[in-house]
Amino acid sequence: MGIHDLIGGYGEYFHSIRLHDNILLLDLKLPTKWEVKSLLSSFGSTTQIKVNDTTDRVTLISFYCPFDGKETETLVSDVDNIIKWNKDREEKDNLLNIKIIELEKVFESNNIESLRTINFDFRQEQNKLKLDGEEPKVAN
């Protein structure tokens, strides 16, 4: 992957990349509400961060590591995983809000007797849904 692809891959989040005293710094402007510190620490990585300016919308975060091939690859991987996890979280939140609205409409437009018979079937052949981190137990 070239530098052009790296920078282009971060799109609107990219702020700058620099090398200082053999330390690679990748600066990104990430949404303020995103999880970063706890995710990075859960990776058990050597990548470090410094939180810089914060507004109500974005936080400028410097991700840094020694300028070494393996360390640099780890930093890029960590940043990619942080962005993916947060984007997935946002999509899940959006889907939840949509499903809540759909369910409210069902409850508004149906009588109590028909609502008592609602069942949620999580049996799917290819994409098993999980409840509390586990696949739901299905009674036969």
Q: Can you walk through the features of this model?
A:
The protein is an alpha+beta fold and 140 residues long. It has a single domain, classed as Ribosomal Protein S8, Chain: A, domain 1. The chain is built from 4 helices and 4 strands; from the N terminus they run H-E-E-H-E-E-H-H. The protein has helices at 3-10, 37-43, 69-109, 112-116, and strands at residues 14-20, 23-31, 48-54, 58-66. Strands 1-2-4-3 form a 4-stranded antiparallel sheet. The longest helix has 41 residues, at 69-109. The radius of gyration is 21 Å and the shape is elongated. The termini are far apart.
What number of structural domains do the residues give? 1
Biggest sheet features: 4 strands, antiparallel
Looking at the structure, the CATH topology is: Ribosomal Protein S8, Chain: A, domain 1
Neighbour order of strands in the largest sheet: 1-2-4-3
Helicity range: 40-55%
Mean of residue pLDDT?
A: 89
Low-confidence stretches: none
Which series of helices and strands comes N to C?
HEEHEEHH
From the coordinates shown, what is the CATH architecture?
2-Layer Sandwich
Quantity of strands, as a count: 4
Distance between the termini: 51 Å
Shape: elongated
Derived from helix and strand composition plus strand pairing, the structural class reads: alpha+beta
Give the count of helical stretches.
Answer: 4
In CATH, what is the class?
Alpha Beta
